[in-house]
């Protein structure tokens, strides 16, 4: 898709919202139409988050009782109804309209050294690393140091969640009853220094989706729900929504579970290239793994002084893995055949997050072994 097509698609989406809003506006003719329109758009946003929440609950076999009997909210009524529209649906989750103004972040006193230590860990967690300095400071101030002894449970599946955690030191295990009727817990993963967990119930206002137990004495930094909601929640949900669609087209990832895919979403960065631009140069060092979100690209290899076309990539394909898996220079040059959009992970995130599909990556790499010169 070129830039023109992208803008046309974008316009179509925006027009759709505006047309529906104008239709309702003229039908209802509220006196204070600016307020009405603002409320209308807030409502559209809440309904979109609500459908995201419903999807989440299906994925994780959860249901938060509070939400169970709720229907999608109705659109705003004319202003003579002074209450506007219902605000009962978990205002904290879906009613972002009332946030920020009332937000007074908690400040838990810390030494400069402690602050620095927290900041270092924070920078390794995707959802915090992109924050501005002010926001990072708010998060660091709000973090509370917590100590857990070996075998102590930090999170119990099904409980309400009030905090997320970043591991400062120690090791913890994550378990999950996959279905509500399961009596046995399945071991899922281990958390170590710099890892983050406990974000799901804050993001979706759902019960805890898994249980976490300290494998040895551990120190965690806990971030409260209110600070999380005000600083990172919207951006994280938006990013997960934005890239969910892209990742659903990447066949390589289809064997990963939903949670693993959301972790990848958090780590993705996007880059747009124009037709003819080079993304990867054969022989150079590589530090990124790419997936094609849109457009086509061509891989070329040098052969006896001339450049030979060896592969074409389209939406859902990936490239750039060989340099990261085998620690070799780039094995081909990748050039944009059309204007294109790619998403990428840096090499650390690639190695950490794509572990579950490493075998598939290696197996697939064998298919183009004939193109690889020095292996
Ligand atoms: N496969 C998984 N499904 C759900 N939660 C997971 C999974 N793997 C790790 N977790 C973490 O376990 C945490 C339990 O508490 P939360 O539901 O708040 O957030 C959850 C995630 O951070």
From TrEMBL:
<dbReference type="GO" id="GO:0004862">
    <property type="term" value="F:cAMP-dependent protein kinase inhibitor activity"/>
</dbReference>
<feature type="domain" description="Cyclic nucleotide-binding">
    <location>
        <begin position="252"/>
        <end position="371"/>
    </location>
</feature>
<keyword id="KW-0114">cAMP</keyword>
<dbReference type="GO" id="GO:0030552">
    <property type="term" value="F:cAMP binding"/>
</dbReference>
<dbReference type="GO" id="GO:0005952">
    <property type="term" value="C:cAMP-dependent protein kinase complex"/>
</dbReference>
<dbReference type="GO" id="GO:0034236">
    <property type="term" value="F:protein kinase A catalytic subunit binding"/>
</dbReference>
<dbReference type="InterPro" id="IPR012198">
    <property type="entry name" value="cAMP_dep_PK_reg_su"/>
</dbReference>
<feature type="domain" description="Cyclic nucleotide-binding">
    <location>
        <begin position="127"/>
        <end position="249"/>
    </location>
</feature>
<dbReference type="InterPro" id="IPR018488">
    <property type="entry name" value="cNMP-bd_CS"/>
</dbReference>
<dbReference type="InterPro" id="IPR050503">
    <property type="entry name" value="cAMP-dep_PK_reg_su-like"/>
</dbReference>
<keyword id="KW-0547">Nucleotide-binding</keyword>
<dbReference type="Pfam" id="PF00027">
    <property type="entry name" value="cNMP_binding"/>
</dbReference>
<comment type="similarity">
    <text>Belongs to the cAMP-dependent kinase regulatory chain family.</text>
</comment>
<dbReference type="GO" id="GO:0033554">
    <property type="term" value="P:cellular response to stress"/>
</dbReference>
<protein>
    <recommendedName>
        <fullName>cAMP-dependent protein kinase regulatory subunit</fullName>
    </recommendedName>
</protein>
<dbReference type="GO" id="GO:0005829">
    <property type="term" value="C:cytosol"/>
</dbReference>
<keyword id="KW-0116">cAMP-binding</keyword>
<keyword id="KW-0597">Phosphoprotein</keyword>
<keyword id="KW-0677">Repeat</keyword>
<dbReference type="InterPro" id="IPR000595">
    <property type="entry name" value="cNMP-bd_dom"/>
</dbReference>
């Amino acid at each position: 898709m070129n830039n023109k097509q992208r803008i046309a698609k974008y316009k179509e989406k925006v027009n759709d919202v505006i047309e529906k809003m104008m239709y309702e506006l003229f039908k209802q003719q509220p006196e204070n139409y600016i307020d009405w329109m603002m409320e209308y758009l807030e409502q559209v946003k809440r309904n979109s988050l609500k459908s995201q929440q419903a999807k989440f609950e299906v994925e994780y076999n959860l249901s938060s009782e509070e939400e169970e009997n709720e229907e999608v909210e109705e659109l705003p009524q004319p202003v003579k109804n002074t209450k506007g529209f219902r605000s009962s649906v978990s205002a904290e989750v879906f009613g972002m309209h009332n946030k920020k103004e009332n937000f007074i972040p908690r400040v838990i006193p810390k030494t400069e050294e402690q602050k620095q230590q927290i900041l270092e860990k924070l920078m390794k967690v995707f959802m915090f690393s992109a924050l501005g300095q002010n926001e990072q400071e708010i998060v660091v101030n709000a973090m509370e140091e917590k100590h857990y002894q070996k075998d102590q449970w930090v999170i119990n599946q099904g409980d309400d969640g009030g905090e997320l955690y970043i591991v400062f030191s120690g090791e913890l295990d994550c378990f999950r009853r996959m279905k509500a009727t399961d009596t046995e817990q399945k071991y899922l993963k281990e958390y170590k220094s710099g890892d983050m967990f406990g974000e799901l119930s804050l993001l979706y206002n759902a019960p805890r989706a898994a249980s976490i137990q300290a494998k040895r004495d551990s120190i965690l930094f806990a971030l409260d729900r209110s600070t999380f909601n005000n600083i990172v929640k919207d951006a994280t949900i938006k990013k997960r929504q934005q890239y969910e669609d892209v990742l659903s087209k990447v066949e390589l990832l289809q064997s990963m579970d939903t949670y693993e895919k959301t972790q990848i979403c958090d780590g993705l960065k996007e880059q747009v290239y124009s037709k003819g631009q080079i993304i990867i140069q054969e022989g150079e060092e590589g530090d990124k793994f790419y997936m094609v979100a849109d457009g086509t690209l061509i891989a070329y290899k040098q052969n006896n002084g001339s450049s030979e076309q060896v592969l074409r990539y389209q939406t859902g394909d990936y490239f750039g893995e060989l340099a990261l898996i085998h620690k070799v220079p780039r094995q081909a040059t990748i050039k944009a055949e059309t204007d294109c959009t790619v998403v990428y992970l840096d090499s650390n995130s690639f190695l950490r997050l794509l572990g579950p599909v490493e075998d598939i990556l290696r197996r697939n790499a064998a298919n183009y072994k004939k193109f690889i010169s020095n292996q």
